[in-house]
Amino acid sequence: MISAESFLKERDLRPTQVVCEDPSSHREPHADEYGRSWNRRDSPVGRRRATMRVSRRHVDGQRSDTPRDLSDLDACREAALRLLDAAPRSSGALRERLLGKGYLPDVVDDVIERLTRVRLIDDEAYAQSAVRYCAARLMGRRGAVTELTRKGVDRVLAQRVCAEADSRGVFDDAAWELGRRTARKTAGMDLEVRRRRLWSAGGRKGHNPEILREIAQELFVEERD
User: Fold this and answer.
1) What H or E segment, with its residue span, contains residue 87?
2) What values do phi and psi take at 63, rounded to 5?
3) pLDDT in tens for each of the 225 residues of the chain?
4) Count of H-run helices and E-run strands, the chain
5) Among residues 224, 223, 198, which one has the least CA distance to residue 211?
6) Are 106 and 62 in contact, with CB atoms under 8 Å apart?
7) Which of 206, 202, 128 is nearest to 168 (CA)?
8) Cα 67 from Cα 55, distance rounded (Å)
9) Residue 35: its pLDDT value, please?
10) What backbone phi and psi angles, to 5 degrees, belong to 117?
11) Residues with Cβ < 8 Å from 136, sequence gap 6 or more?
């Protein structure tokens, strides 16, 4: 059997010399299973990631990070129903959440109008429930108005509902209960310290200073032997 070297000599051929480059001076491109090579940035994965990064940016105030049609009325309605199933919400809070998901303002307003028409959204009932929640947390009228507006209730509605609750003595009862709890917690402390604790707690809860002064004079007095 003729050797490979003899075979090349007979045909006046020379083996090709392969020059090895310094691996530190050259970086091999990436290749796929078909032998094609490309720079990492130009690979399909790299291009897809770059596209995803761009798609997650805000364009003219609208998010474009989801493949769905954000102007689709049905999709927006389904998103609203899921949010309402999770927890009761005012129309203002629901609108904010839907806009945050990227739905267009006119689509969101249309959905909220329809849900209000079929009584799935009732800001009046929601505000009444929120006031009872605030009273249970021993909040005052000012604190309740702030809490309701934070939850997306229209400020005019929040003020009206809280005024009605105030006329029934709801917030006065809450203030007195707050005073009794503070008195129990501060029993044995210096009188001025106890009063400061009452004023501090009452201020955070948004109570009227007049009712706090009355409570301080009634519950926080010098102990007599």
Assistant:
1) none
2) -80, 145
3) 555 555 545 555 554 444 444 444 444 444 444 343 444 444 444 443 343 333 333 333 444 444 455 668 999 999 999 999 999 999 999 999 999 999 999 999 999 999 999 999 999 999 999 999 999 999 999 999 999 999 999 999 999 999 999 999 999 999 999 999 999 999 999 999 999 999 999 999 999 999 999 999 999 887 654
4) 11, 4
5) 198
6) no
7) 128
8) 10
9) 41
10) -65, -35
11) none
Phi and psi at residue 96, in whole multiples of 5°? Answer: -60, -40
Phi, psi (deg, nearest 5) at residue 68: -75, 160
- Taking the C-alpha atoms of residue 201 and residue 183, their distance in angstroms, rounded to an integer, is 12
- Residue 67 to residue 51: CA distance in whole angstroms: 13
| Cβ count near 163 (within 10 Å) | 11
Structure tokens of 161? Answer: 């509902």
DSSP characters over 48-76: HHHHHHHHTSEETTEE--SSS-TT-HHHH
Neighbour tally for 216: CB within 10 Å: 20
Biggest CA–CA distance in the chain, Å, is 128
Read off the DSSP letter of residue 29: P
What CA–CA distance (Å, rounded) separates 105 from 15? 73
**What's 3's DSSP letter?**
-
DSSP of 116-152: HHTTS--HHHHHHHHHHHHHHTT--HHHHHHHHHHTT
Range 39-44 contact pairs with CB under 8 angstroms and sequence separation of 24 or more: none
What count of Cα atoms within 13 Å lies in the side-chain half-sphere of residue 90? 22
